[in-house]
Structure formats: C-alpha cells, structure tokens
Amino acid sequence: MTVENLTALFDKLKVTESLELCEDFSAVRNFPFTVKSIRIFVFSWITSNHLNLMKDCVVIQLRGSTLTDQDVTSFLDKWKSGDYPNLQYLYIGSDNLSQDFKVFGLPTLHNFSGSPFEKQILGQTRVIRCAADVEQNGRVVAKIKFTTSSKVIELLVL
Description:
- Pfam families: FBA_2.
- Residues 34-92 form the Sdz-33 F-box domain.
- This is Sdz-33 F-box domain-containing protein.
- The protein is globular and about 50 Å long.
- It is α/β, with parallel strands linked by helices.
- It has three helices and nine strands; from the N terminus they run H-E-E-H-E-H-E-E-E-E-E-E.
- It starts with a helix and ends with a strand.
- The protein has one domain (3-157).
C-alpha cells in the first residue's frame, strides 16, 4: 500500500473505540488520535507531538518507543495539570528512558511494596503493582510505576 493510499485511508477513518497498530506508519501524517484506546507496538516513529494529540484517549499503550525522560516527564506534567482529562491508563515502553527516571518530585518510581491496585477500564482489568502514589491537592489521584529492567512507565488513574 502506498503512502498516499494509507494517508487517504487514515483521513477517512472514523475510529471511536480502539486502534491497534503493529506496523511503522511514520509516513502517514494524520492519525485518529481521538479514539478511546490506542495501542501501538512499533512506536519508534511516535514523537512528543503525537502524544500531545492524544488528549481524548482513555488508554494509551505504546511499546518500542524512542521517547526520552524529558518527553515522558513533559507528558505526565501536562496530564497532571489537566490536559488529558480522559486518561485512565498509560503504558510507555522506551529504551531511551534512563534507569533513574523520576517524575512529580518522587524520589523513586520502583521498589514500592503494597497491594496491587486494579480498575476496570473499557472492559479490561488494568492492574498496577508496587506503585507510588501521585498526589494532587492532598489526595492520591493515581498510581505510577517505572520498571527499570524493561524501561516501562505505567500510570493508573484512580
């Protein structure tokens, strides 16, 4: 399929629930980032600009990323300030995240103990274990975890 055909397809696509991509679609300029759930497996072409377009998403899962600490921190800061009001679950895997990735002033994002937290989101149970609390205005609003071995950041909004 040519880039022109793919672009025309995505221009006409009206996905509202879920979009899963397992190929490199870097040549396509317009994406329906307004879906409730987006899952991208070959994600090296996604930039922080693409993340900024995902404001309507409830679930964002990105694997195989090239996003940096700065990209993810910027996204999470925007989420915390209310720019992503629908976001309930975030999963970003990136080889470019440093082993000591930190956000929200937390001293660490791994090696926490405690009970797993689970939540039904769009018909699927999302579970986060050994996660840190994200507080806002004196109350816990989310759980966040960084797995150093796989360089994965997870956020589950309460």
